[in-house]
Design a protein that fits this description.
The chain is of the alpha/beta class and 390 residues long. It has two domains: 9-321, TIM Barrel, CATH 3.20.20.150; 326-385, no CATH class. Helix content is 45%, strand content 10%. It has helices at residues 38-48, 57-60, 67-84, 111-130, 153-174, 198-205, 220-225, 230-239, 267-279, 300-324, 326-335, 350-358, 363-367, 373-385; strands spanning 13-16, 52-56, 87-92, 135-139, 144-145, 179-183, 192-193, 214-216, 246-248, 286-288. The longest helix is centred in the C-terminal third of the chain and has 25 residues, at 300-324. The protein is globular and about 80 Å long. The termini are close together. Bound molecules: D-gluconic acid (GCO) and manganese (II) ion (MN) (2 copies). Residues 219, 221-222, 257, 259, 289 line the site of one manganese (II) ion.
Amino acid sequence: MSERLTPLPEDKFAFGLWTIGHLGRDPFGDATRPPISPADFVRGLGRIGAWGVSFHDDDLVPPGATAAEAGKIKGDFRSALDETGVVVSMATTNLFWHPCFKDGAFTSNDPEVRRYAISKALRAIDTGAEFGAPTFVFWGGREGVESAASKYPLDALDRYREALNYLSAYVKDQGYQLRFAIEPKPNEPRGDTFLPTIGHAMAFIQTLDDPSMVGLNPEVAHETMAGLSFYQGVAQAIWQEKLFHIDLNDQKIGRYDQDLRFGSEGIKDDFFLVRLLELTGYSGPKHFDSRPYRNEYGDGIWEFAANSMKTYLALAAKARAFNSDPAVQQAAELAGVNALAEPTVGKFSTASAAALKAEKFDPEKLAARNYFNERLDQLVIDHIFGLNNK
Ligand code: GCO
Ligand code: MN
Ligand code: MN
């Protein structure tokens, strides 16, 4: 099997400043690692062969920085980008950390908080555009409730929509080349989050002033937390041309958001996900939104990052081998995989409906068919384990 396990720029592997650089702080304990400056972070990415970097406004320039401090941080960041060739692949805004967002940002009950949130997002969009980010992500961390009595959800959705409409009009007004991507999550930090899944977010997008400008940034961990198949969700997002960005990580079902290393848990799901992204020619960033284990230190955090990319490439190689294996093709044929790509009845006509009603079917015979799913699925396992005569 021809395996390339070293990343190239065309793989479009990207990491956020808050990911590899996560300090290891959790609700039960303080930081276990020292901070890395944005510029050093970019240099680290350059060393491991990553292509892109993403940031929240506050990861790049800490809140409260003076204009001079902000200028220095941005200048150093820019120099590191120029030195390494790493690009800014996505920008976003932190509307969850400051206590003023405790009741939500775009959906806070306090109109002043809502106006502040939109103002902060406008400025973060400017920063994203300044660094050439093609995508701006909205993860509604605090957009939700613990007490259902505290918000009328239809009003909250109106305010969410109002904010996104306003911000997309701003992007057009400024002539920025930037699209929005909504990142759904079912809960955490709120008890219930608005736009909890890929499906909710895609339906919401259709109600916006310009749905074409807004897509999705789905995350493995978030759909898995909801007990949903990330693979099926992403497939529908691709089908609806809404996969603008993707957050790759891993997650055990039924837990808090673990943000584990991609490929560290659901290896079979990850295989199908990578196969889907490769088969459909997904061309956006492959963005790892994960964090090293809290007890990782020093070079361990870069090993974590390199391994995320290596696993993706290994799974892509496995997917290619799987697709071209004659045994797989034969089993897929027996399973009828290709037959599902054929139209069933085509477009409606009165005559064809009459003919269809008159057609004789033999349900008993149809029921007696084997679909060979066991054979096909075992071939998946054989390929992942490398048992496929290669
Ligand atoms: C989370 C989210 C975040 C977002 C990030 C960018 O669950 O914490 O995944 O990491 O991806 O805020 O929007
Ligand atoms: Mn997450
Ligand atoms: Mn994420």
